[in-house]
Amino acid sequence: MEVVIAPADRLARLAADVVERLVRAGATEGGHAVLGLATGSTPLAVYDELARRHVEDGLSFAGVEAFMLDEYVGLAADHPERYRNVIERELVARVDLDPADVHGPDGLAPDLPAACAAYEAAILEAGGVDVQILGIGTDGHVAFNEPGSSLASRTRLKTLTHGTRVDNARFFGGDLDAVPLHCLTQGLATIMQARHLVLLATGRGKAEAVHQLVEGPVSALWPATVLQLHPHVSVLVDDDAACRLQLAGFYREAYAAKPTWQGL
Ligand code: PGA
């Protein structure tokens, strides 16, 4: 696990560099690049940077396949906060990603378990995710794997915690009752199969979750801690999100001393 502590705009550029390298190379394995997309506010700066590179540097996403992490259950197809619509608005419509190549769990499916199984199969069929962008919840969730999630979980129906619904109410005009109670989410084992995980966190509100993620014991109480078992994780945090890290000084030294050829 590599921890990079830097200002938020630099973190967004570093994450965009990883995506750009993948997209320009075509894939890390298999025939085409497969990108894992996250919603929430933290990845937006990465999507802004990718859209800028598309326009100014000709970065093309043609032929890239993308998989989203999660989706609310029951939000109407045209609801602006449905994650499918969020990702279309924040990234797909701003670059040349083909919307038909962007997949998400279907929170409106009549048979939700079947939709979850189909989603797992689709990821497998695509050859797995090369680079997965991740945020982290204040309670340590990744995607919508709330505390208590099985570390071996697969895409399934989950109930959002009260805290997550409070955190997300800002997207629903501050109306807690408008935030769905249920979601479909890639499981922790699903996420762990992506080849490179790039997690971003900014702000003091994430400091405890980041401390647990990097330095806490692996536990379902802090689901993100399972990432400690992944061989290739980049944790990109600003000073505020890093403020509880016990070994922050060492992470800074190690990154500053990193050979330039190494990359993330
Ligand atoms: P945020 O959400 O980026 O909006 O803080 C992160 C998450 O809940 O995973």
What does this protein look like?
This protein has eight helices and ten strands. The chain has a seven-stranded parallel beta sheet, with helices on both faces. It has a three-stranded antiparallel beta sheet with strand order 4-8-7. Helix 1 packs across helix 2. Helix 7 links the parallel strand 9 (196-201) and strand 10. It has a single domain (2-262), classed as Rossmann fold (3-Layer(aba) Sandwich), CATH 3.40.50.1360. It has helices at residues 8-25, 44-57, 83-90, 112-125, 162-168, 188-192, 207-215, 248-256; strands at residues 2-5, 34-37, 65-68, 70-72, 102-103, 131-134, 156-159, 182-185, 196-201, 233-237. It is of the alpha/beta class and 264 residues long. The structure holds 2-phosphoglycolic acid. 2-phosphoglycolic acid binds at residues 40-42, 135-137.
Defining traits:
264 residues, alpha/beta, Rossmann fold, three-stranded antiparallel sheet, 10 strands, 32% helix, binds 2-phosphoglycolic acid
Write the layout of secondary structure elements.
Blueprint: E1 2-5, H1 8-25, E2 34-37, H2 44-57, E3 65-68, E4 70-72, H3 83-90, E5 102-103, H4 112-125, E6 131-134, E7 156-159, H5 162-168, E8 182-185, H6 188-192, E9 196-201, H7 207-215, E10 233-237, H8 248-256
Parallel strand pairs: 1-10, 2-3, 2-6, 3-5, 6-9, 9-10
Antiparallel strand pairs: 4-8, 7-8
Helix pairs in contact: 1-2
The chain binds 2-phosphoglycolic acid (PGA).
2-phosphoglycolic acid binds next to loops.
